[in-house]
Known about the structure:
By secondary structure, this protein is α+β, with helices and mostly antiparallel strands. The chain contains 3 helices and 7 strands. Strands 1, 2, 3, 4, 5, 6 and 7 form a 7-stranded mixed sheet that branches. The longest helix has about 60 residues. The termini are far apart.
Amino acid sequence: MMNGNCRRTHANRLAPVHLLRRLALVVICGLLGAGLAQAQDEAREHESAAREALEEYFRAWNAGDNDAVAAISNFPRLSLGQNGQVVVRETPEDIVTDFEALRQTGWDHSTLDLAEAVQVSADKVHFRIVFSRHTADGSPYSTVPALYVVTNQNGHWGLQLQSILPATFTR
């Protein structure tokens, strides 16, 4: 019988310890959850700023404005073409697209059909991209998958890397 009393006494002493452990676990989980929520909020802010830069890039491109394209870029700017060719633009002055020649191929504007952030950090966002090129009547004639990397350099979000794959649709 003494043994039974000892067990009860021992169990009674352990009860507060179990409660404290559970309380500590709840507090730790709450703190971790709050930290995770804050990290998710920050990631959404970074993604949003990078997405704005990406959309601005497409507006500048559609305007055929090399200066505006350069302004929404970060340097050095790297482009990897569909056949593996590499173009490095060291300065804004290196952004020189012949939009008139592009128009002569039938291009009028491009649409950003998909921009999915696949990796996000405070200074870089990787986007899985699909864009289409359209004629003046709005008909698409080419759809192209790509990877665009938008970076944050000294508070400026801008396009820094484009890697374009072969078109998945051509007319």
